[in-house]
């Protein structure tokens, strides 16, 4: 399968204590933390892209612009969708959403770049 606009990836996540605002320090209540929601969005993109790329390639996140508009409680299941909007060489742009049940809790844009694993590791060591 080639990378082309329109690809849709989906993953489900549980809001366990390590993903709460209270635990991560981004708030004082036990609801899904914004940094955790962003992690879920990035993870959805990365793990699904890794299935489509050659073994020597992966992607790195370079930009996130999301809104966290509703809370999700501890022990809830979150559904994340990532739709590939644009492929521009190695640059990939996604529209990402997160839902708790039927409620939209977050949405936005996430950008990733395709990199060669070895070359990327060597570059950061220099």
CATH fold-level name: Thiol Ester Dehydrase, Chain A
Based on secondary structure, the structural category is: alpha+beta
Distance between the termini: 34 Å
Radius of gyration: 15 Å
Query: How many strand units?
Result: 5
- Give the percentage of residues in beta strands: 35-45%
The H-level CATH homologous superfamily, spelled out, is Hotdog Thioesterase
Name the CATH class: Alpha Beta
Comma- or semicolon-separated keywords:
single chain; 126 residues; Thiol Ester Dehydrase, Chain A; 5 strands
Please explain how this structure is put together:
This protein has helices spanning 21-24, 34-52, 117-125, and strands spanning 8-14, 57-68, 77-88, 91-100, 103-116. The chain has a 5-stranded antiparallel β-sheet. The protein has 3 helices and 5 strands. It is an alpha+beta fold. The protein is globular. The N and C termini lie far apart (34 Å). The chain is 25% helix and 44% strand. It has one domain: Thiol Ester Dehydrase, Chain A (Roll), CATH 3.10.129.
Structure described in brief:
Helices cover 25% and strands 44% of the residues. The protein is α+β, with helices and mostly antiparallel strands.
Draw up the topology in text:
Elements: E1 8-14, H1 21-24, H2 34-52, E2 57-68, E3 77-88, E4 91-100, E5 103-116, H3 117-125
Antiparallel strand pairs: 1-3, 2-5, 3-4, 4-5
